Amino acid sequence: MSIDLLGPDPLYTQIAEEIARRIDEGVYVPQRAIPSEAALCEEFDVSRNTVRAAVRKLAEAGRVRTVRGKGSYVLPPNPPSS
What we know:
Layout: H1 11-24, H2 37-44, H3 48-60, E1 64-67, E2 71-74
Antiparallel strand pairs: 1-2
Helix pairs in contact: 1-3, 2-3
């Protein structure tokens, strides 16, 4: 996935959407870590602050959980409410 530097969406939003797509496709599976901040910085050629904002957005959406000193882990999907 390439990041659109000139597009209207912030870089962190584009990265969060890409990680969410990978979670949906099973590339990143529940209870396992997504790549480290350093790896994501290198992959997307962005700053650590940008990656942190993307991961924070995913955490706020309930897609990942960050464990201090360990990384960010994919959360299982929420079952539908009845």
